């Protein structure tokens, strides 16, 4: 019969978590913490799963150091909860300027767009009528202008009366005003100067109008369907420019004296636990929320690679600011090793043997990290050499053994 360890430290940590939490409950109730017990399925002839053995030479080489978990009062960094949001001027709701039917989409959700790029094409009878009115106004202006010039020549030769000249000039002025009004109408419907110059009597029935993006960004939402008939102002797309984002953090009223515009902020998000994003405080809210007693602080973050996405929750550490003293159970940060999404420590079991223990951690400060679950006060953990033990545990967790 062939038996193997769980695949990876993460699986091993899960198999030990229940036992570790049971020991923690015993410790907090006054009973001594017991060694983690395992069913026979997690053993082989060499011992329990998660139990790492080192030779005396390995212990010497790794310079194994052991300390006891201790209750301490630690002053932590000031950390505020916040949310990633797009900047106010980085969001565009692109809508139809004229009533029409959606004839074609040029982009989809997730596509990058540039300012002025066509995102959709509408079929609008109203645009066709506006083009026809413009062409008619141009023709009327041309005719009335020619008439006025002819009346001027006749008047100078004393063939036409002054009244006829004035009437012709008035008609030309009215026609020019009508043409300019028709031109403004087309601009209002989204027709550019270049497009206006290309309008001729042969294409006045063309009713297609391009909808363009007013900013660079990414399409995050499409709000219409192909063939849908839209009213003026109805939204088609939402585009966001996320090269810069904001973190809106909640800072308690009692901590406001430590916060100032221009201060640096280190931000962490759940999706990228190993990354620290840096930003700068751009503004501090003018009012205090009556219920939470917090003030909104706006942090500006560069987001070139798009890792920070609107809606993410963030933990913002305010540089130079100190939180309230915190009582807890602490070990040196060197004792805690990351295991995927969790954390582990190694507890001495006997000479040369060390037991892997999953733990939950809290805030860290000045070389100490809080253990919120998994250890009891006074339990000893490995500090120097814990990385070597993690490597040995990982190697053993992938090894197969025959009974």
What is the strand and helix layout of this fold?
Layout lengths: L1 E3 L3 H21 L14 E2 L2 E2 L2 E3 L2 H7 L3 E3 L1 E16 L5 E5 L4 E6 L6 E2 L4 E6 L1 H32 L5 H27 L4 H6 L9 E5 L4 E6 L6 E2 L4 E6 L3 E9 L11 E6 L2 E13 L9 E9 L10 E20 L4 E3 L2 E9 L2 E13 L2 E6 L6 E3 L3 H12 L2 E3 L1
Antiparallel strand pairs: 1-25, 2-3, 4-22, 5-24, 6-15, 6-19, 7-14, 8-10, 8-13, 9-12, 10-11, 12-14, 15-18, 16-17, 16-19, 17-18, 19-23, 20-21, 21-22, 22-23
Helix pairs in contact: 3-4
Give me the secondary-structure category: alpha+beta
Helix content: 25-40%
Task: Count the DSSP helices.
Answer: 6
Q: Could you tell me the CATH topology label of the largest domain.
A: conserved putative lor/sdh protein from methanococcus maripaludis s2 fold
Regions with pLDDT < 50 over 5+ consecutive residues?
1-8, 10-47
Shape: elongated
Q: What is the CATH architecture assignment of the largest domain?
A: Beta Barrel
CATH class of the largest domain: Mainly Beta
Proportion of beta-strand residues: 35-45%
């Amino acid at each position: 019969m062939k038996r193997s360890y769980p695949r990876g430290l993460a699986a091993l940590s899960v198999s030990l978590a229940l036992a570790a939490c049971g020991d923690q409950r015993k410790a907090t109730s006054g009973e001594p913490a017991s060694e983690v017990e395992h069913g026979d399925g997690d053993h082989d002839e060499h011992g329990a799963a998660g139990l790492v053995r080192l030779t005396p030479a390995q212990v010497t080489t790794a310079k194994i150091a052991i300390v006891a978990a201790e209750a301490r009062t630690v002053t932590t960094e000031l950390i505020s909860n916040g949310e990633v949001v797009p900047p106010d001027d980085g969001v565009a709701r692109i809508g139809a300027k004229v009533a029409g039917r959606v004839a074609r989409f040029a982009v989809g959700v997730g596509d990058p767009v540039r300012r002025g790029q066509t995102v959709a094409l509408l079929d609008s009878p109203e645009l066709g009528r506006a083009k026809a009115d413009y062409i008619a106004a141009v023709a009327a202006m041309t005719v009335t202008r020619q008439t006025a010039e002819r009346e001027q020549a006749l008047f100078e030769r004393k063939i036409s009366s002054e009244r006829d000249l004035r009437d012709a000039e008035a008609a030309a002025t009215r026609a020019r005003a009508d043409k300019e009004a028709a031109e403004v109408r087309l601009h209002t419907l989204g027709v550019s100067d270049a497009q206006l110059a290309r309008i001729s009597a042969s294409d006045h029935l063309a009713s297609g109008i391009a909808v363009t993006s007013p900013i660079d960004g990414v399409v995050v939402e499409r709000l219409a369907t192909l063939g849908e008939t839209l009213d003026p102002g109805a939204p088609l797309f939402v585009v966001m420019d996320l090269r810069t984002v904001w973190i809106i953090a909640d800072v308690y009223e009692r901590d406001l004296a430590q916060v100032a515009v221009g201060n640096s902020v280190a931000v962490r998000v759940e999706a990228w636990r190993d990354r620290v994003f840096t930003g700068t405080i751009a503004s501090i809210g003018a009012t205090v929320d009556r219920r939470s007693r917090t003030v909104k602080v706006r942090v500006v973050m560069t987001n070139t690679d798009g890792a920070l996405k609107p809606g993410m929750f963030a933990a913002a550490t305010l540089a130079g600011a100190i939180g309230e003293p915190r009582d807890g159970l602490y070990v040196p940060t060197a004792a805690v090793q990351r295991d995927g999404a969790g954390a582990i420590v190694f507890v001495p079991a006997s000479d040369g043997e060390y037991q892997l223990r999953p733990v939950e951690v809290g805030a860290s400060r000045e070389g100490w990290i809080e253990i919120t679950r998994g250890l009891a006060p006074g339990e000893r953990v490995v500090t120097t050499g814990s990385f070597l033990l993690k490597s040995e545990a990982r190697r053993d967790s992938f090894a197969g053994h025959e009974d």
